[in-house]
Design brief:
This protein is an alpha/beta fold. The protein is built from six helices and seven strands, in the order ααβαβαββαβαββ. It has one domain: Vaccinia Virus protein VP39 (Rossmann fold). It is 29% helix and 26% strand. It starts with a helix and ends in a 5-residue tail after the last strand.
Length: 201
């Protein structure tokens, strides 16, 4: 059993707050969550369920089987249509479909350098040209022991490069809500809005 499966079996892990991340609620209001949506690393599905309730055709994938089991149960209980599937975020091409928006709530900051490169290739296979990748990650101002890797703006820009087909539209300060006691209930984060460039003729 993986670390993440164990975390979901033992009870709500710190990152599972029982509701969508407030950042994604704001992005929906701004009109940045568009069309067909994929929540990559969806956990128990709160962000995906929110996107579906907002009217989007929505998929959620996670490699933790227990998380997907709980997500499916939530969708059934709430009467919300979301396609949840156990899948590896580093192999999104296996889904054999593309999306207009890909959400990432705490996935990118779990990857090492090699996995980051694999992840961008995986994203490119699943995100249509002109689509948006909306990523929320812990930033270097997050204090406290343990937890995921902190990410700087420079690291984000170094991974999502223009010459590889990405446009970083903006990186704004944000907060990542968790179940930790204060001040971890408002953990400093970056919200990155990254566009997959249209193919050149």
């Amino acid at each position: 059993m993986t670390f993440f499966d164990t975390a979901y079996h033992q009870g709500p892990p710190p990152w599972d707050i029982g509701k969508p991340q407030p950042v994604f609620v704001d992005l929906e209001r701004e009109g940045l969550i568009r069309g067909r949506v994929l929540d990559a690393g969806c956990g128990t599905g709160e962000n995906a369920l929110f996107a579906a309730r907002a009217g989007h055709e929505t998929w959620g994938v996670d490699f933790a089987e227990e998380a997907i089991r709980q997500a499916k149960r939530k969708a059934k209980e709430q009467g919300v249509k979301v396609h949840f599937e156990v899948a590896d975020a580093l192999e999104l091409e296996d889904l054999e479909r593309t999306f207009d928006t890909i959400l990432d709530s705490g996935l990118f900051h779990s990857f090492d350098d090699e996995e980051r490169q694999a992840f961008t290739r995986s994203l490119a296979a699943a995100l249509r040209p002109g689509g948006l990748y909306l990523m929320l990650c812990f930033n270097e101002h997050a204090t406290g022991p343990g937890g995921p890797r902190r990410v700087t703006q420079a690291e984000i820009r170094a991974v999502f490069r223009e010459e590889e087909g990405w446009t970083v539209r903006e990186i704004r300060p944000a907060f990542f809500a968790t179940r930790f006691d204060p001040p971890w209930d408002r953990t400093p984060a970056w919200l990155a809005v990254i566009e997959r460039q249209a193919a050149t003729p």
